[in-house]
Amino acid sequence: MTTTETTTAATGAATTATATHRAAPVPVVSFRQVNKSYGAVRAVADLRLELNPGETVALLGPNGAGKSSTLDLLLGLRTPDSGSVSLFGTTPQRAIEQGKVGAMLQSGGLMEGVKVKELVRLARDLHPRGRPLDEILATAGITDLADRMVDKLSGGQEQRVRFALATAGANDLIVLDEPTTGMDVSARRTFWGAMRQQAQQGRTVLFATHYLEEADEIADRVIVLHRGRVLADGTAAEIKARAGARRITFDLAEPVDHTALHGLPALTSLSVSDRGSAAGAGRTVRIQSHDADATVHALYGLGCYPHNLEVSGLGLEQAFIALTTATDATPTTEETAR
Ligand SMILES: Nc1ncnc2c1ncn2[C@@H]1O[C@H](COP(=O)(O)OP(=O)(O)OP(=O)(O)O)[C@@H](O)[C@H]1O
């Protein structure tokens, strides 16, 4: 909090006005109109983004959307062509030197010829605010791997060791690029349990993932990147609502004219399975519509008698597909200009 005192001399008397302002918290991460291209490929385009203290944020996007490039810029591993990136109000390099950032990246092998505990101890000793070794091993779920040689680890175990290295110090920001790739279901559960603990201690967590259920379950904010831009930014519920579409499922006992179904209003997709409905006969129809009321109303107008009718919102996965495919259908500014 900042207090500003203003003293005004008027008619020989001093008037003191005290104004109290609440200082805006310094964002943990700030991207200001950042651009990054590799030759002709525009990987990050006019990216504006702020992360606030304590947020757990998922970065989603199809292959090539710019997720890894964004994380590389954030960590100072790449330099923007224009715009600026800051962490905790300073440069990425400075924030990392101060021990504020832990990262778990996709690339880069682990040092070989050492035991897991030796590698983790080294990372801990290099950190300005290293955590106790036993605690690091326990939170990463690798206590039983402590004496294993690093080159004898499975892919999923390696990922857990990478996580231990990323959390070897008391970081304020943890950055994870597809952290659970190669982990089985149980290792994933343990991993996210550990991650939650980190978030509950007030740390900001940013992770890129292709597992949409992870984003849905873990993140309190989801950022969808596409073609290097932010396509959607909000809670998972907001992203689902933003995609707008509803899913309509029903069974039909009688044969159906597919062309008539395709003519239903507000349709974004339609599939008819003739292999028998859930009830054992007929066919199951699955529709995505951006106006479920209009679609269902018209369905009755076709003389259809749907059974087991269900109308529901989209899951994050379908919302993600709806959002990104809608954008794929829209030409970019550069394409329009051609
Ligand atoms: N070093 C590089 N040289 C040339 N092009 C690159 C380089 N790194 C990334 N790209 C390109 O930049 C774009 C963004 O890549 P990036 O790896 O950031 O995407 P991503 O969202 O992380 O993808 P994925 O989900 O496949 O990991 C892609 O078109 C990619 O081919």
TrEMBL record:
<feature type="domain" description="ABC transporter">
    <location>
        <begin position="29"/>
        <end position="252"/>
    </location>
</feature>
<keyword id="KW-0067">ATP-binding</keyword>
<protein>
    <submittedName>
        <fullName>ABC transporter ATP-binding protein</fullName>
    </submittedName>
</protein>
<keyword id="KW-0813">Transport</keyword>
<dbReference type="Pfam" id="PF00005">
    <property type="entry name" value="ABC_tran"/>
</dbReference>
<dbReference type="InterPro" id="IPR027417">
    <property type="entry name" value="P-loop_NTPase"/>
</dbReference>
<dbReference type="InterPro" id="IPR050763">
    <property type="entry name" value="ABC_transporter_ATP-binding"/>
</dbReference>
<keyword id="KW-0046">Antibiotic resistance</keyword>
<feature type="region of interest" description="Disordered">
    <location>
        <begin position="1"/>
        <end position="22"/>
    </location>
</feature>
<dbReference type="InterPro" id="IPR003593">
    <property type="entry name" value="AAA+_ATPase"/>
</dbReference>
<dbReference type="InterPro" id="IPR003439">
    <property type="entry name" value="ABC_transporter-like_ATP-bd"/>
</dbReference>
<dbReference type="GO" id="GO:0005524">
    <property type="term" value="F:ATP binding"/>
</dbReference>
<keyword id="KW-0547">Nucleotide-binding</keyword>
